[in-house]
Specification:
406 residues, alpha/beta, four-stranded parallel β-sheet, disordered N terminus
Length: 406
C-alpha cells in the first residue's frame, strides 16, 4: 500500500504524519502551518451507529492525497489528521482537544454529525480555530454573529424540510403524515422545516411524531407504531443505518405510504441496496449532488474526473455510495479556500476566505447549484431538487429550489 493510500485509510491515527514528521522542521507562520505543509484535522464516525459515514473521511483523505501528489496548494502539502469519535459527543470533544492542543492543526474540517459538532462548537470558537464546512445540515451553523469560527457546507435541514412540507401541501393535501425522527438537534431541525413547509396545515396533517435514540439497535417498533397511526405519508428523518431499517420494515409490514427520505440517507450503496432496491421503489427525496447511478450524470466530464480519482486514490471505495461524492465535493471546497488564502494561512484569513466564496462551481453538484458565502451568510449550498427512486436509481425532477422559494 503506497503512502498516498495510507493517508486515507488510517482511521484513528494521524494520517500520513509519519512521512511528514521525517521532513526537516520549518519555521511556523501560523498555527498548523510551516513553509511546506498545513495541518488539517477531521473527526468522523468510523465506528458506532453512524459508521456508514466514515467513507466521507476516507474520501477526503484520498482527495488531499491527490492534491499532494500534484504539488499541494500554493507549495504546501496537506497533512490530514483524522480521528474516530464513534458518533459520540464526549468523544468528539476529546478528539477536538487533541487536534487543537496536541496536533496543533490549523483548522478542523468536516467534523461529522450534529451532536458531535454541537458538543465542540463553543470550544472551537473560544479557541478561535475554524470549525469549517461541518458535515451536518443543522441550521445553527449559519450564525456568524455568535459563532464566527463555525460554518456549514451542505443545504440545511430546515430548508430540506420546508421543501418536503411544501410538496406535501401542494400535491397530497388530504394526506395524513407520520414522522420518524432522530431525537436530537438534527432530527428536530428537519422536523421544524417540515412543519414550516406545511404551514397552517401542519397541525392537522401530522398525526404522529415518533422519535428514536441512536443508542437503540433497531427502530422496528417505531415503524409498527406509525403504521398503526393510520398515516399514509411517511417522512423518515434518519441516518443510513436506521433509514435502511425503516425501508425494510415498511416493506415487511406491507405498508404502502408515500415515503419521503431525508437527503443524508439516500446513498444507493449504503442505504438502498442493504434495504433492498425493490423495497425503496417510489421513495421521494432531494438532491444537490449528482448521482453515480444516473447514466446522464456518469457521462458528464466532472463524473469522469471523479471516477478517475476513485480508481487511482480510493480504489477500495464504493462508487455507488453517494458519500464518496459528498467527500470529494467538500474537499474541493476546502482546497479552493486554501488557494484563495494564498500565503496567509492564518486561521483568521482562512475563515475570511471561507466567507468569500463567489459562485464557486463544483462539477458534481446538480446543475444550477453553486457555492456562495459572505461574511453574513455561512450557508455555502442553499438549494435542492426533488428526486424519486425508480427501483434502480434516483431521477431528479422539477426546479432547483431553496427553502425560501419552495
Amino acid at each position: 500500500m503506497n503512502m498516498a493510500l495510507r493517508t486515507c485509510t488510517l482511521l484513528a491515527m494521524a494520517v500520513g504524519a509519519s512521512a511528514l514528521a521525517a521532513a526537516p522542521a520549518m519555521a511556523q507562520t501560523a498555527p498548523g502551518v510551516t513553509d511546506t505543509e498545513i495541518k488539517i484535522g477531521n473527526i468522523n464516525p468510523y465506528s458506532g451507529p453512524a459508521s456508514a459515514y466514515g467513507v466521507i473521511g476516507k474520501t477526503i483523505g484520498a482527495y488531499f492525497a491527490k492534491i499532494n501528489a500534484e504539488g499541494g496548494v500554493n507549495g504546501r502539502k496537506i497533512n490530514y489528521i483524522s480521528y474516530d469519535d464513534g458518533y459520540s459527543p464526549p468523544k468528539a470533544v476529546e478528539q477536538a482537544r487533541k487536534l487543537v492542543e496536541s496536533d496543533e492543526v490549523a483548522i478542523v474540517f468536516q467534523p461529522l454529525g450534529t451532536p458531535s459538532n454541537s458538543a465542540i462548537q463553543k470550544y472551537m470558537n473560544s479557541k478561535q480555530v475554524p470549525q469549517l464546512f461541518v458535515a451536518t445540515g443543522a441550521t445553527k451553523w449559519n450564525d456568524p454573529k455568535n459563532f464566527p469560527w463555525t460554518m456549514g457546507w451542505q443545504p440545511n435541514y430546515q430548508t430540506e424540510g420546508k421543501i418536503y412540507g411544501k410538496y406535501i401541501a401542494d400535491n397530497l393535501p388530504n394526506g395524513k403524515v407520520g414522522v420518524i425522527f432522530q431525537n436530537d438537534d438534527y432530527g428536530k431541525d428537519l422536523l421544524k422545516g417540515l412543519k414550516d413547509g406545511l404551514g397552517a396545515k401542519a397541525a392537522s396533517m401530522i398525526i404522529a411524531e415518533v422519535p428514536y435514540e441512536v443508542s437503540v439497535p433497531t427502530i422496528d417498533s417505531q415503524i409498527v407504531q406509525l403504521k398503526g397511526s393510520g398515516a399514509d405519508i411517511l417522512v423518515t428523518i434518519a441516518t443510513p443505518k436506521f433509514a435502511a431499517q425503516v425501508i425494510r420494515k415498511v416493506a415487511e409490514l406491507g405498508w404502502k405510504p408515500t415515503h419521503f427520505l431525508n437527503n443524508v440517507a439516500i446513498s444507493v450503496g449504503a442505504v438502498i441496496k442493504p434495504a433492498g432496491p425493490e423495497n425503496a421503489k417510489d421513495i421521494l427525496s432531494t438532491a444537490y449532488l449528482k448521482d453515480a447511478t444516473d447514466p446522464a450524470d456518469k457521462e458528464s466530464p466532472a463524473f469522469k474526473e471523479w471516477e478517475a480519482f476513485m480508481d487511482k486514490y480510493y480504489p477500495d471505495g464504493n462508487k455507488l455510495d453517494g458519500s464518496t461524492v459528498f467527500g470529494y465535493a467538500a474537499a474541493q471546497t476546502m482546497v479552493q479556500v486554501l488557494k484563495q488564502a494564498g500565503k496567509d494561512l492564518s486561521r483568521a484569513n482562512i475563515m475570511k476566505e471561507a466567507a468569500n466564496l463567489k459562485n464557486f462551481e463544483i462539477g458534481v453538484l446538480v446543475d444550477g447549484i453553486k457555492v456562495n458565502t459572505s461574511p453574513s451568510d455561512f450557508a455555502p449550498i442553499e438549494q435542492l431538487q426533488m428526486q424519486k427512486f425508480d427501483g434502480e436509481r434516483w431521477h431528479r425532477f422539477g426546479p432547483v429550489m431553496s427553502g425560501e422559494s419552495s
